[in-house]
Fold these 3 entries.
Entry 1:
Amino acid sequence: MVLLSTQNAWPFLLSAFLIPQLLCVARADVHFYDFVLKETNVTKLCRTKSIMTVNDSFPGPTIEVHKGDTVYVNVHNHGDYGVTLHWHGVKQPRNPWSDGPEFITQCVIGPGTNFTYEVIFSDEEGTLWWHAHSDWTRATVHGAIVISPEPGKLYPFSKPNDDKIIMIAAWYTEDLKELVDEAMIDGSDLPHSDGYTINGELGDFCNCSQETTHHWYVDYGKTYLLRIINAVMNAELFFAIADHNLTVVGMDGGYIKPIVTTYIMISPGQTMDVLLTANQSLGRYYIATRQYSSEDADVTGFDHNVGSAILQYRGNYSLSLSPVFPNATLPLYLDYGAALRFTNQLRSLASEDQPVDVPQDVSTRMFITVSMSEILCPNSSCTSVSGNKLGSSMNNISWVNPSLDVLSAYYRNLSGTYTTDFPDWPPSMYNFTGDDLPDSVDMTYQGTKVKVLNYNETVEIVFQGTNVLKGSMNHPMHMHGHSFYIVGIGYGNFDNETDPETYNLVDPPHVNTFGVPKNGWLAIRFTANNPGVWFWHCHLDRHMSWGMDMAFIVKDGGTAETSIRPPPAYMPPCMDMGSSDISMQISSIDQVEVQQL
Ligand SMILES: [Cu+2]
C-alpha cells in the first residue's frame, strides 16, 4: 500500500498532464506518494492511546524532491473522521486546489475516500513540511519536506557530509480531538500539551520515556545539515545542542546569511536549516528544546517539559558518563531578550544566485491589529470573559469557517459564503500596547471576510500586536501561497512616519511564518503574483481556532499563465453534518450546485 517516490509509476498520468510541464522546466521530476491515514496505538508517558497517523508513523513520512519538482500525494483516509493536508510553505503557483486548509480551499477527505494532491514546487529550496489542516489533527499528522538544489546545482555553502531531520512536536496524553471539540463548544480554554517530542520521542526527562530517547549518531569531523521543524501546536521553542555551535543557513525554504549561534528560537510553522560540525570530544550531548513563553510572567500554565534527544559520537569511549546538557546555552522559558537577539539577526542571503525581489513601491497598504478579544455571548451566558466568550481577532474580526470552501465559492462566483469587506484598518485607533485599555476595544465581530487583491499588487501589511485583555504575546503569522519579506519589526505602537525609515529593503528575511512581537509590530511586503485563495492565520492553533484568521483572494492577471488553473476532476465534496450519504457520492461541482439551492 505504501509507495514512496517512484518516478515511473502512473505513466498514463504523465502523458496526460505532465509533458507540457516537463517541456517548460527541463529538469523537474515527478514523484508519487501514497499516504494512508489511519488510527495507530502509541504508548508515551506511561499511557497508550490511539492517534491519527500517516502510514503508521509518527512523525509521518518525509517527502524528498529537488527544487522545481512536482509531487502527487494520494491520500487514502482509513480513519474515522475527515482530514485535509497542507504543504506548508510550498507556493503552489496557480494551484490553490491542492493547498489544503479546510473551508478555505477544500472540504475534508471523508473516511473511506481518497484525494490526490498535486504539490507544485517552484523557488523553494531547503526544508519545509506538510501537515493536516483540519481541526487539530496536525498534532500527529505531519512530516518533513526536503528540497535539494536542482541536479547539478550547489548549496550556497560547502556540501555537508550528511543531513538530519529534527521534527519537534507536542504530545497530549488525552484524546486531543475530544478535548478540542468540547472546549470549542463550551468556550473553555483549549488544551495544553504534556511534553515535546523530538522525532517522535519525549526523551530522558519525561516519565516512561528514557528507553526510547531518540539517538543521533555522528562521526567526529563531519558536518551535518540539520533540518529543524517546529510542528508544535501552540508554542514557540528554544533549541540548543550541548557544547556545539549551530550555524543557521536557511529558513522556511530559502537561504539566509549564516548566523553562528548557540541556540535558536523557532516558531510553530517555521523551519530552519542549520549546519553542525561534530568537533567536540567523543561523547554524548543532549539535543534539547523547551517552550519560549512570550506571555506575561504570571501566566504559568504552559507546558514546562523539556524535550530531548541525544547526539552520540561513534567510536570507542566509555558511556558511563551522563550526556552533557546545554545548561549554559538553552534559554529559559521567559527569556524575551534571547528570542529577540536571535530573531534580529535574520537576513536573506541576497546573493547573485539567490536574489531578493523586495517590493520597493507599495500599491496596497493594510494595518492589522492582532488581538485577543471577547465574542459577544447571547444573554451573557458564557463563562470565559465577563459573560462572553474568549476569541482572537484581526482588526476586530474573528474568522468564522463557512460550510462551503471559499475557493469553490470564488471560482464558481457563488454568493453567501464569504464577503469581501475585510477592513484595511482596525475599527478604532487607541494605545494598542497600553496597560489599561478601555473595555470598548475588547469586542470582536464574527465573519467570513476576505481581502481581494489584484494580480501583481505590491502589498505592505503592518501587523500591530495589542495588549487587549492583557493578552499580549508573540503571534507567528503564516501566509499560504506566498512568502513575504520582513521589512520592519519594532516594539510599542507603530509610527507611520518614523518607523518606515528603519525598514530593511535590501536583504530582509523571506519567510512564510514570522512572529508579530509581543506588544510590538511587524511590517511585511509581498507581491500578489499567485492567483488563488490563500489563508492567513496565526500558527498557534489555539488562536487559529479562536478566529485569528483571514484569507486573501488574488485575482487572475488576464492571461492563462496568470490565472488559476482549472479545478481537478474531483474535489472532496462539502456537506453539512447530517446530510445523507448520497451527497458523498457526487462530485464537488455538483455539490456546489446542491448548496446553491
Ligand atoms: Cu497568535
Entry 2:
Amino acid sequence: MLVRFWGTRGSIATPGPSTTRYGGNTSCVEVVTKSGVRFILDCGTGARPLGIRMMADGPQPITATILLTHTHWDHIQGFPFFTPLFVPGNHMTVCAPQGGGRSLLEVLAGQMEYTYFPVELGQLGAAIDYKDLAEGAFELGGVQVTTQYLNHPAATLGYRIMADGVTLLYLCDHEPYWENLWRSDAEPGKLESILHAGDRRHAVFMENADVVIHDAQYTPEEYPAKKNWGHSTYSFATQIAAAANVKRLFLTHHDPTHDDDFLSRIEERSREIAASLQSPMKVSCAFEGCEETFESDPYEVLRIRGTQFHTPSPERALRILVVDDDEDLRILARKALLRSGHKVMEASGGAEALELIARDKPDLVLLDLLMPPPDGLETLRIIRSREATRSLPVIVLTAQGDEASATASFEGGATDYLSKPFTPPQLDARVRSCFAAPRSGNGLEN
Ligand SMILES: [Zn+2]
Ligand SMILES: [Zn+2]
C-alpha cells in the first residue's frame, strides 16, 4: 500500500517561505493499493497538484474513491480544482458522512454555485457517484473500509482502510473527548487506563494498525484556548496511538501559525513522548510529497480475515429525553436536537425522568448530574438496574468537569460524558456517535 501526502495543513492554505518543508496545502492524502485501487482522503487544496499528477502519469481513464472526513472548507476546497473531475470517461465515487440535513451532493454543489466558482457541479465531465455514509463497514472499490465518528463540531468520519494486509487509519479532524487521557489512579500508556469511554473507543478503532494519520493541530500549551474547536494536540495523538500499539504515526492538519521550525520541534517532542512510553512506534509530522509504502505482516492478514463486518445503521430521528432542573439548559438542548430532526421529551428531575423512561421508552437520555434527589448518578443507577433499560444509551451532560464525576458516571454505566458549556453541533455529533455504534451501557466495559 502506497501512501502519499499532498496537503498536510489544517484550516487554511498557508503557502510561503516559512512552510516550504512541511507544505502549505490543506488536507489531501493519496492511498493506492497493490492492485491499483486508489483512495483520495479529503480534497483540501492538495487535491489540485494530485489531480495534475494523476492526469499526467496515471492510467486513463481515471477511477478513484474520494473519502471526505467532513465538508469543512479545508477538506473540500480542492474539489473544484481536481482536474480528473472535468474529464469525460473518468469515474469518481465521493463518500462523506451524512449530516446537517443536506446531502453530500447539495453541500458540494453549494461551494460551486456561480457566486463562488465559474463552473457548476453538474457541468463536470466525469461520472460521479455520491455516497452519504454513517458508521459501518463498506466495500469500496473491492477494498474493506470501516468508518467511525470522530469528535468534531460537524458530522465527521474516521476511515479504516484494510488492503494488501495493511491497516491504515485516517483520523482527521478529531478532538479528545476529555482533557486528560489517563485516569489519575492508573498507569498511563494502557488502553484500560484511558479515562473517557469515547477516547477508549477511538483508541480501539486504531488498535494494532500499521499506519495512523492523525489530527495534531495544537500544542498542549495552545489547547486550552482552542477547546471545543474539534482538534487534537500532538501529545494526545502520540499517546493514544502508542497505547493502541500503532506501528507508524503521521501527525497532520498542522496549524497555519506553525512554521517549519516549529513543526520540527513538534516532531521531536512527539518522538520523545513515544520513547517515554516505551513505544517502538515511528512518529513523523507529515509533509507535502512525503511518500511511504507499507507491506503486509503475515500474522496481520490472518487477523483481518477474521474481522466481522456489520451493516451501517441508517441515520434516523431519535426520541431523546433531556433531564435537567435548569430550564435554560433544556431549551438549549431541545433547540440543538430539534434542529437535527430528533424528537425531544423533557424532565426537570430524576423521578419524573424515570417515569417517562418507563412509559415512553426514549432511544437516548441526556442526564444532568446535579439535581434534587434522586440526582443524576442515582437516576443512572436505577436506569441500569432495570432489565428494560440496562443498555439504554445515556449521555451525562453536566457542569461538573472533574475526573471524579466523569469516572463515577462511567462506572455507573454512562455511555458518554459531556461537560457544559457545549455547542449545538458538538452535542449533535456526540448523540450521533453515541447512537451509531452498538455498545453496552457501561462505557468501562468497551
Ligand atoms: Zn480541518
Ligand atoms: Zn473540520
Entry 3:
Amino acid sequence: MAEISPQAMEIAVGAPVDPDKVKELDALTATLNTQYDEMPSLELLDAMINNVFKGKIALVSSFGTEAALLLSLVSQVNKNTPVIFLDTLKHFPETLEYRDDLIKKLGLTDVRNIEPEPSALKAADPDGDLWSRNPDACCYLRKVVPLEEALSGFDAWINGRKRIHGGSRSKLDTIEHDDRRVKVNAIADWTQEMIDEEWQKQGLPEHPMVQWGYTSVGCKPCTSLPKPGEGKRSGRWAQFDKQECGIHSLDGTWEDTSGGI
Ligand code: SF4
C-alpha cells in the first residue's frame, strides 16, 4: 500500500462498509449473473437501464480510446442514461474535445462532468503536483472521492472493463459489486474483433490521440506512448509501479484489485 498524505487521509470516502449490505449485494449479484450472464451486451444494458435499475444506474466513462463503444451501446438503449465523467482537471485537451464530440454524435443528454472539490484540492494538492510524489493519493483525491460522491443515490454503475485487457480483468464477472453498489461489466466478454466490427458498424470516431500511437489515454502527467511489444495500458503511470487508478476499490484503500475504466 502506498504512502498516503495526511491531507488526503482527511478525505472520507462514504460510510464504512456495512457487512449486511455486502451480503445483500453478494446474493443480488449471484442472482443477476445467473439470469443475465449469457445475454448479449445490448440486451443486458437494456434490461439493466430500463428495467432492473431504472433511474438508479449510471455509466462511468473515461472518454478514452475505447470508451465510444460502450457509450454508443448505452445511447442505443437510453440516451438519457446518466454518464459520469471524472474531470480530474489533468486531462489532455484532446480528451475534452472528444468528450464533447461524442456527446453530440450519440445524443447523450445527461453527461455529468465531475470535478474534485476545490477545498480538497487546496488542502491536499495546492500546487497541482501531488501526482509526481504520490499518484495513488492524487487519484484518490481527483477520482475516487469525486466518483463516490457522484454515485451517491445510484444502486448500480456500468463500466467498460474487458477480459481481453488481461491481468486481474481476465476473470471479470459480468455483474459484480464494490461493497456499496452493483457494477455491470457490460462488455467484459468482447474480443478485439467484436470491438472493431461494432466500431465500424456504428461509424464511431477515434480519440484524436490514437493517430499519434496512444492506445490508452488518461491524465496528461500519467500517460505516455505504450512500450513496444507491451500491452495497451503500458503507457499509463509508466514512471510508477501503478497500473490502476483505484476507482474499482472504493473502500478508501489503495489496493487495486480489479482494474480501472
Ligand atoms: S492519473 Fe495521474 S494526474 Fe490523474 S488523478 Fe491519477 S495520479 Fe493524478
